Fold each of these.
Amino acid sequence: MPETVVRKPPVAVIGLGSMGFGMATSLRRAGFEVTGCDVSADAVKQFVAEGGKGASTPADGARQAGIVVSVVVNAAQTETILFGKNGVAETMAKDAVFISSATMDPDVARRLAKQLEASGRHYLDAPISGGAQRAAQGELTILASGSPAAFAKARPALDAMAAKLYELGDVAGEGAAFKMINQLLAGVHIAAASEAMAFAAKQGLDIRKVYEVITASAGNSWMFENRMPHVLDGDYAPRSAVEIFVKDLGIIQDMARTARFPVPVAAAALQMFLMTAASGMGRDDDASVARMYARVTGTHLPGEPK
């Protein structure tokens, strides 16, 4: 008998930023028909030039899609994409799955899931980690939770986008909660790495040698190793912007206050990111916290005016 060919469902990727573009590219590489949509017409044009399809609104992009991947910044944008003007909730196929990759409060993820599921569609809470390069390589870490049906519908796309998929529960919100723990640590580690590197420069140390020593020592962290080369090169083009951690650490503060749980270290890190954003570097790379320290203390870092 001839072998049955399983047709991959059409996919819409809403949000073609540094992460979403790579995820859309990985899906195309895996054989999906992918339509991309973004507020930037240039991003859509670039995706079309590389072989994808383009749409001017989320509703058009998701029309009859079996899988919609939302790669936007926050809960408010996610809700607009779902239920706002030109939203996807009514145009995506019946029984389709919405994969939400935004970092958000777990309670909001649960509310959005309940609202979408009432229409007969599925919602997978699936925050991501790994950065733009891993997104382009299809090697993200995805922290997912949702119903068994949502996982079943989303799995072909998840396999194309992720090197590590963690299935963290059968209701939305669990993935979001795990992501917030990751963001607490990531924000604290970036702030600490930036403080340490600026302090080393203040001591007159060769900061390239500091980087070499620390990355081979117990004080190293993934964020130190990943972000401090940006400081060494004086390159603050945004891979992940300061404002991302203003948002995420702010969510953690709100969650902690509701739970009556003290998070003083995360609170201190939030203040460092807020100060950096207030200094005009909110849209720059999050390693700019080191620049904020340097400017406050009169310390010179590479690429900065003396």
Amino acid sequence: MLISINNTLGKPDFEKLLASTINSLNLESSRAGERYLKLLGHKLENEVYDVMCSNAENTPFEGTIELISGQKFPDIIANNYFGVEVKSTKQNHWTTTGNSVFESTRAENIKRIYMLFGKISPPVQFKCRP
């Protein structure tokens, strides 16, 4: 018997989704910076989720994105395989302590996790990395 595990299951498509999500967040935050300066914690997770769902239309991820923030890691899952942990800082730098990231609270079946980071200080900006 042969068993093949595809470790790149939709990875290029998911990374395109993340890139379009980052582009949308950066564009919208440049237009509505004051609103974005108020988005931290769950509010930011909800915003990222909404933007991801919008950008997922007509992609393999349409209808598969779930917001599971709270006591689970990561905050957002897609296709029961990919995860996005949303982190932010109000400081003008790209570092975080990474609080609330505990492998013991990891959602089942999530194989690839990306960190989407928001620098919530003028100018508001977003980045994402595996």
Amino acid sequence: MRIFKKLKLARNAALLLAAAFALAPAAQDGRINWYFSKPGGNARPTVLDGKYEPESYGALYLGPEGEKKIYLTFDAGYANENLEKVLDVLEKHRAKAAFFILPGIIKNSKSTVQRMIDGGHTVCNHSTHHGDVSKITDINALKAELEGVETAYREAFGRELARYFRPPEGAFSVKTLQMLKELGYSPVFWSYAYADWDNAKQPDPEKSKAALLDAAHDGMVLLLHPNSATNAAILDPLLTEWEKQGYTFGTLDELKAKTG
């Protein structure tokens, strides 16, 4: 009986350990997957369950409490008609946004990136290869991943890319944050995002609009994909409603000055 009891205890311990690893945001290799709570009702969320203190490395993900400001950020790996519509809406509302880009959009859609520049938007780094940067442990390798976009942007437009970086898929490690800080980059995450990236499986526009209005909060850093047909359809009424509610739209430079 004692043997069976010991086996049962060992089995339970193993199950608890497996569950802990399944729930932990950081894997054994150091990878952390960015996540946030969804309190709704325009309440401010928590990120990473309050762990890791990414702000100590200059990470930006939430603005000050008590300030009705939303920071619009877009991950723009490529251009399509929806991205152009998004730029039209931003121009209509005189709202500035941040666009995190890959080299491909510079090569294939230079005029679209020029529109971002001409519109006063912040054009930022989303990596050269859109891979898992949490696996990069050598600072020179990470520097090369950043420089691929920097060089393409410099050669195409004769200017420097803004030194803000969004890790693809929100995957990073503490080492990633340390290296980015040493390289003079501010990592940018978010306090709200939703499943908008699959062009073949777009969410319902009305449900998406309702969810975004319910999620809006002081200092929200909103991640959207501008290639999304749903986002292109709802962005104008969203911004209109947020303006009616007293929200204004801030830039990453403003956010960094207030929280960095």
Amino acid sequence: MNAITAPPAPETSTQLSTRLSRASVKKLWNVYGDIAWPESVDIGGEWFMTPELVSLYGTPAWDALDETGRKRLSFYDLVNFFSLTLHGERPLVQGLCNQMYARQNAEVTEYIHHFLDEENKHMVMFGEFCSRYAGKVYAQKKLVVPKTYAKGEEDVTFFIKVLIVEELGDYYNVMMQRDASIAPISREINRIHHADEARHIIFGRRLLAELWNEHAPKWQPETLTGLRTWLAGYLKASWNDFYNPTAYKDAGIADAYDARQAALAAECCREHRRRVSRKLVDYFIDTGILEAEPAL
């Protein structure tokens, strides 16, 4: 009889960090020299987001726009998307600094240095696009509420936020890097971002699972319930930020707040949010962080 071979043990965060550090060195890029910024862009004359990704797609406000209006909206929606990603990466960078030597793990620390370098370059890249072509970065809307954490809960919460920012954004990056119909500068920025984020997501998923398995079994039931309630709310709030009435006003849409409320309630937009979130929500359920799919 042939002996049954046990499946290989899953890669640890230490082993993964070593592999990802090599990849980051191999794929090193220069934010100041590797992007060919056009002098100007044609707002209203070309697409900047894949139309199906534009936040009002499929709603009455979208139907009321001509093609120029839709292309103009795609530009300001992209500015909002890049602004959201930039703001999402600011606390990520701060948190990574705190994580850097916290575990006394040389391999993880080395990769966090690469992670931090790449996230800083992303912020420069997104800020440059928004400032150069829109003249601004849209303001952040989230408030930070002080909280007392159980042991390990703050680290788990931090890496949950990391994954939400990165996985939602990466869906958009992948779609747009493949879309030859959108402006080349938009396609290039999305391509660059995805190339780094693919590594960040793998790392974040592995480390979060390890942190969850280490700490969650020791928490009181109310801590688990509280974290799951917070996670569902944070994911929904993150999606709400994709619907920015200020961007709609800049795009020339009348009744921008009504357009936002209609999009948040529209079934086509709900289905889009569920579809984009599916892999991330499945991960949270598979690891036990969530027990059921949250309403989005």
